[in-house]
Amino acid sequence: MESSIVETAKRYAEMGLSGHWVRPPESKGNGAGKAPIEKGWQTTPYQTPDRLAEKYSPGANLGIRTGMVEGASVALVVVDLDSADAIEWAKENLPTTPIRTVTGRGEHWFYRHPGSSPIRNGVKLRGRAIDVRGDGGQVVAPGSIHPQTRMPYREAEPWSTSALAEIPTFDRAWLAEQNPADETKSATAQTALAKAAKRVASASRGMRNDTLNKEAFRIARYVGSGELDEATVKEALTAAACQAGLSSDEIATILRDAETGALTAGQQKAKRTPKRREAVTTRLLTLVEQHDAELFMSDGSPFARVKVAGHWETLSLRNGDFERSLRGWFFKAEAIVPKSCELADVVALLCARAEASGENRIVFIRIGRTERAIYLDLGDPTWRAVEIDETGWRIVAASPVCFRRSRAMQPLLPPISGGRIDELFKFVNVPEDSRPLLLGWLVACFRPGYPLPLLALSGEQGCGKTWLTKCLRMLVDPHCAEVRGTPRDDRTVMIAAQHAWLLTFDNLSGVPGWLSDVLCCLSSGSAYSSRTLFTDDGETILKALRPTILNGIEELPTRADLLDRCVLLSLPTIPDAARLTEEDLLKGFEAERPRLLGALLDAIACALRRQSEIKLAAKPRMADFALWATAAEPSLGLPLGGFCEAYRAGIQAAADLPLESSPIVGPLRALLDQQVRSASGEGCWVGSATELATALQRLALTDVSQSPDWPRNAASLSGALKRLAPNLRQKGIVVEYGKSSDRKRTRVITIRSLGNSA
């Protein structure tokens, strides 16, 4: 049990969740099985998997922090459904979420924190056993034991990083309280009235008149602010005064509506919540000005560039980054925490100012550039960067470009000069002939704004694919999630691209059509459009150009359009005698990482110097990438033209993959052979897409025509042929599109065999 819950805790921490240990379920006193062990846990930053394991206490349950947690890559809001009735209500009224916990008596539903302002914890919402855990809250995690039922908490469905990325964003309106009897009443005011009535009813002889007068004045302030109505107050206080023994005349004298009456005087001193709110808002805006805030827009989103402790930071106004910083500044200055509504007012005003400013800037993540230089965000607390230009590289205190950061981003070790990039191959299993490709791809990772191919790794299990992926991640863009599993859908991929520079997908079993399309978008920087969640006609545009790594046992890309955008590396088997532990490799790699990064930066500076001089005799697909890598050859230790030679060899080797994986190629060859054997003796077929589909269906084996990749109609067949056309041409088969020569001028497809290649 102990090892199991510790492994569960480490897995959740690797997903970016903030975990802590909870009192054992068999312990005595209140909070057994549910109360955190560590004091001050509400302000404890995210704990790494290893640190969390070190703090384990025997028999302890596991808890997960909710709300905004320092260092955590995911901020959560959890809806605690503590009965079957609450679960049924949630199924009808709340959006479903893939991250759920089955508890001892109900379920926990996990949602993404909206980030705009704190989410308060609430209980018994909607008149049901429904609680909300937001900022400053926690829930007991799967792997724990319920202290009453002794039933284990368990995952309703397997939790994963990809599933976590798909949880909907929490909306306060889902669980807004609706009590018809007190719809216009403040809960605070109602409580105050009940306490006032109790004090009046229990007042001792000789203090009754004075108590009624004081309490009437105090409660009348809520009448003046509109939180209570006067009739309700009179009724409650009159009943209480009668219970205390006061006469009707005495009560009327104290509560009369005259100028000197307690109720009238109290209303004139009404609670002025708006004034307090206005005053705090003014102080918050003053703090914004003191931090020299520059407001601007980037791709339709508002940002603020602020000066903090002598350095500049770029913070989003919409995802909660700026709000968290502003809350901290205010607490440091005033020793109090502003209310969420006050923060929301200020942020809304700043968003409006940013939109009205008319200023637009590019905001980068990890890698940025100007006309003369490339900048690398080190990710450290002082927001230092590395400047790379034709003369070399240097660490600078401030970057002229704006960088944004995700909470999952980790700092780079500052680079050191004097390293050699080929030292990388002491730690990773890459064959000699593939090393130029890997080095060229690495250099291209540091060139923002230009298309670059994906890196696709293959090889049998145990050949070091995942370790190579992690090494490249640590070298280019360290992140809490070193590798990701198979993404659920295209939206998941594009959202991940908004929070990291380098994307890594580990242990894929294949690349379906939808994933192939979105990976092509990442390679070329094409925009992706999807329906805005919880709307009927809202459109969300996501655009990203990102270096991406895929790895799997099989050759992953098979579609021709994706293969054209890939660098393929097949890793050899590692003999048992040469195998090292990841721990030993990590020690050596960490020691060498600053020099490896320095050597990479040397190569980028070299490419900047030479790029205008480089001319390629024949430009391959992704020509910008090939030219850039060629320009860096001297610094990479490659011979002149060595990269292009390896790149072309890789392209040629990959040319057969789409043909080998496509189910239509075999029947197509059989069709051309049939034409050769016909009376005409010509290897040529002409007809419509529908006729071609029928002919291929007739020649295909049953298991081939029933495969998922077999085109189901004429349109999909035509699209498949267009993707395969360049590869078929290399094999002597030409596919052409035109119109018939008769009067109908119908669309036809001509397939010809050149020579005997077919």
Question: What does it look like?
Answer:
With 758 residues, the protein is an alpha+beta fold. It folds into 5 domains: 2-175, Prim-pol fold (2-Layer Sandwich), CATH 3.30.2250; 181-268, no CATH class; 273-361, no CATH class; 428-654, 3-Layer(aba) Sandwich (Rossmann fold); 662-753. Helix content is 39%, strand content 16%. A 5-stranded antiparallel beta sheet has the order 6-3-5-4-8. A 4-stranded antiparallel beta sheet has the order 13-14-15-16. Strands 19-22-18-23 form a 4-stranded parallel beta sheet. The longest helix is centred in the last third of the chain and has 29 residues, at 582-610. 40% of the residues are buried. The model is unreliable at 177-185 (pLDDT under 50).
